[in-house]
Design goal:
heterodimer, A: mainly beta, six-stranded mixed β-sheet, five-stranded antiparallel β-sheet, 59% strand, B: mainly beta, 11 strands
Amino acid sequence: RKEVEQDPGPFNVPEGATVAFNCTYSNSASQSFFWYRQDCRKEPKLLMSVYSSGNEDGRFTAQLNRASQYISLLIRDSKLSDSATYLCVVNSRDNYGQNFVFGPGTRLSVLP
Amino acid sequence: DTAVSQTPKYLVTQMGNDKSIKCEQNLGHDTMYWYKQDSKKFLKIMFSYNNKELIINETVPNRFSPKSPDKAHLNLHINSLELGDSAVYFCASSQEPPLLAGALNIQYFGAGTRLSVL
């Protein structure tokens, strides 16, 4: 089983739609969680961190379920500019330091 | 100002050559990373350096050698390039531990170096 798995996508949705992405991770000792966004031929950029209580940033809502080792990202009222690949990132710390593991990404295309 | 900068942005070279990619960060972070993103877009960590000490070395061929002259720089040297090395290489940095109690450790990425081996 891969350390971090995501919906394979791609997701093609019309403008204004609500779309949800799922992510699961295998390391129960994981400590912090993030959603990154990567545009075509660009570097990954932090979209939002994911907190245990869930958190919202404008149209974006992230949820974490530690018991199920599951993370989600909800995008409401999709915009054309939301088209990108969304990467789930899980971080753990061991005796050797930080270990960031990226999921394979879910591609989103928002259509006019 | 670019927080994490990599050079060159594009690198086209022949098989068997030796090449280097440079990375610099001006964020004052003490941990830097190299990632490889292949044609399938999967981003995989190669190396991590903390205070000039290698702390992660994934199953990467020893043709790849990271070099950190100081904590603001982490260069990647590749010997005897192979076709399979063609990919985008991203440098990143983070602060470990985070400066603020309870803060999450966030990585910042460079723009990537697109390596094509012919």
